[in-house]
């Protein structure tokens, strides 16, 4: 009985969509987890860039790519990801990816707490130099040297 009801509901949805009552947003399904996993490191790179650049302006030049600063390149990456989705598809993905990136970034920074403010600042600067800079540079360089791979990941996130 339940299967028949589900089949009828599915059939009705297909008929309504085919009749133009509901415009399908995409011919292919979106894998939200994959899109979240693509966006999370981009947001983490953006967050680390913002924090580290406040502590040391040279971070901006040290993470610069061929096509712009890390902030510019990562924003283009975000725009490229968002262009593959409708607003309704993107909303929960952006929220989840931003939460993941924020949690990781804050965890990295909180691990540097303790001691005097100067000691904490020095530890965060070291984190920026030793961990954040190579990570951000890697995100930027990987995107600039392998744009086809990035585009393929986005296509793969669309199943079908």
Automatic annotation (TrEMBL):
Keywords: Signal. Residues 1-29 form the signal peptide. This is Secreted protein. It comes from Ancylobacter novellus.
